[in-house]
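step 4 of 6: structure.
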Amino acid sequence: MAGMRRQPMSKKYHVINTPVHNVDGIAKVTGRAEYTFDVVLPHMLYGKILRSPYPHARILNIDTSKAESLSGVRGVVTGKDTLGVKQGIWRRYKELCDEEILAREKVRYIGEPVAAVAAVDEDTAEEALDYIEVEYESLPAVFVPLDAIKEGAPLLHEQAERNINVTRHIEWGDVDEGFKQSDFIREDWFRCSSQAHVCMETHCAVASYTPDGKLTVYTSSQSHYYIKVLLADVLGLRENDIRVISRYTGGGFGSKFELDSAQFCSSVLSMKFCKPVKIVLTREEEFMATKRRTPMFYYLRTGVKKDGQFVAKESRVFTEGGAYTAMGATALYLTGFFQAFPYDWPNYRFDGYRVYTNTPPTSAMRGFGAPQATFCAETQIDIIAKELGIDRIDIRRKNGMYAGYEVPGQAWIQSCGLDECLDKVDEWIKGKGDLPANNGIGIAAYGFMSGGIFNWFDTPYAFSSAVVQVNIDGKVDLFIGSQDMGQGSNTTLTMICAEELGVNVQDIRLHMGDTDKCPVDLGAWGSRETLMQGNAVKMAAAEVKKQILEFAAAKMSPNIVYDLDIKDGWIHLIARPERGLAFNDVVKEAIRGRDGQPLVARGHYTPHRKGMISPAYSFGVQAIEVDVDPETGKITLKDCVTAHDCGQVINPLGVQGQLEGAIAMAAGYGFTEDLPMDEGKILNPNLVDYKLLRTTEMPETTVVEVETYEPEGPFGAKEAGEGLTNPTAGALGNAVFDAVGVSINELPITPEKVLEAIREKDKPETNKED
Amino acid sequence: MDKIKLCITVNGEDHECYIKPKKLLVEVLRDELGLMGTKRGCNTGSCHACTVLINSVSVKSCSVLAVQADGCEITTIEGLADAAELSPLQRSFLDYGAFQCGFCTSGMLLTATSFLAENPEPTEHDIREGLHGNICRCTGYNSIIRAVKAVADGGYEEAADE
């Protein structure tokens, strides 16, 4: 069967950096993709959750008898039906596990679950909620972190003095000495607002407990592994008696890797009644009672030399934590770390305080604290550049990070294309020429991590694992634990496997979204999947490939100085690619020759000795052109370019989609989205009053890929989705600054704020520096 | 509440079912007929994820009672492809990566289908106006606009039966 065939082997990669169809695409465009929202099991009950109307109250009594006597109601559960475990993702730090999900004694925010009902249909369950009688004792509440830290403020958690939940200190260099050496010092306060994730599929779960002690949970999640383990903790089950399933997740953005009320309440109900129970949160519940982006109150003090050289930076932040820790402690650390990004600060100090308040808990959301930091930092840099008369590109270039730079004690940058990104954006701006009146361009530079090194979850497993098996027909089974919530990791990881193994994307059958069948991966958060799960997939594929090549070499018996490779299903001598064997033929014989043992291998990845934060960092620069109406303050986004270093691009179509989606979400954060509250109650919990960007508001979006090679990433790849949320609010603010000369320090940058600032600026005798 | 009889044609198939009069069309499609491709993003008519075609006109199926569609012809996402032959918009959505999580995609495709039927030669701006009501939290819309434009520009032929 050894043969000759002409092969175009000139391309370095046969799969990578080629646009391929999303591997789940046909299922998604034909409506066949089954989300948790679509799961129906025989004899299934429907659940609804009763939530607290008070921001802070003691639960004196819950009477469920009337609700339980309603026709069609199967039963009600409250905190008394649970083990009362205070849970959280901080399994290594028990003091931070502070949320019961079904409150037993006290509620701490409007929307906190207090009871859950199961009934024959949703309408009956909804009706039953009205018949559950809860007696509350209302307690004094506090809503703003700067009030909550005051002496005598109402305490949310008794052990947390002054409501301080977590503090974080980062420091390097000699900051005080740095300020002494600075020629120019600037101080500013910023306020960064909250934001809702608004996944199109709301949080939902179908839990099914059977008398053999096994619990199966279908759920819309970013990490099936985390949900499985967290459920085991709170339900008193063994981890592997729980199976978490669902291939499709209708959006996540950081909101779906903690245990949520739908998962917990449906499980408790199902265990009590031994029937499947489905809970789907309404859009209103989604807004009012799921987690959200962390609002931050930032103070920045920055010292520079006359020529724009950065010398020292001091930052302090108070974050509105809401009622529980959630993922907020990580957001606190990351905002402090990324406050220094992407620059070489010789002296830096950060002090962060996460404060409990009687508001819905704040947590992870795409960018994870970095969009807030980047908005403040980039806004201030433009003010400083203007005051010193330095070009905004030059000041960033002068101080930017570079390959080989070490963030002292924190991180090591191995690849960095920031300089080239600045060049590309500079060219784009210059190409625009003179802008019309009241038009402006703003820029912001940013960086982000490619997967966190943190293991507060205390997993003893590798961070990512994969299994690759090659079958006799050449079809490859790839098993991964990671979750595709829309970001496209299923396609990216299939491509990585195909490239490494030398087969095509269509040759791979992907298995994911089922904890009974797939190896552990920590999940899709912190931009982990391309690098961490990608490395595990590459390792497994490489090991199988080795087994196949050993067999092929024995068969072809080339001179042993020649290496073999596989590309596009063709096993060949690298030096003489026309000499080779078909992959499928070799595989069939290899399996037969191994006494029927399949060709299978495992791969895994856990970062070691890569600093405190992440093994690799993406970089980029974004410029946005806006038109500001000076009469109304209205901002129109006209155009946008992003020069982006994500290492080696794996899937160009995927990267472009991530970039455009990030701009829509982050522009929303910058100028339209907000969660205003009155005494802890969210005032706009619907898609009419909560203003997401629509088709007509999106600008043109040009992507310039600046390719670098990241030694730690699979084929040199880094993250390409979350970090793109970081620059937009800052670039938008700087564009308004460029257009009409006012700098807004508070998100979102609404027409009202712009108009007020313009009027303030135009007033005679104000804001004039002596 | 007494159930009443509903006769609808969905994706070319006639259905007869008995429903409570307050049932929404989206509920009947999903719960009675098992057509789970139609999604529900809000239940307040604000996201257009539940869009279907009633007599070729795009309608939010969470905003009409099923009985209002009595006697009508309905097309859902399951009816866009002809067996394995995808519609031009479905193919262009694949080529342009015009979806990510996929939850809004059914509604987006049906809105776009009816939009192109009414506006065979739209400008990009027209397409943006036409899809203004459909929320997508993942893509930032531009890939969707490109995909619809490509079909309008004749880049995708209808599945050839001639």
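step 5 of 6: annotate
 - Chain B touches chain A through 53 residues (CB under 8 Å).
 - Chain B has a mean pLDDT of 95.
step 6 of 6: archive
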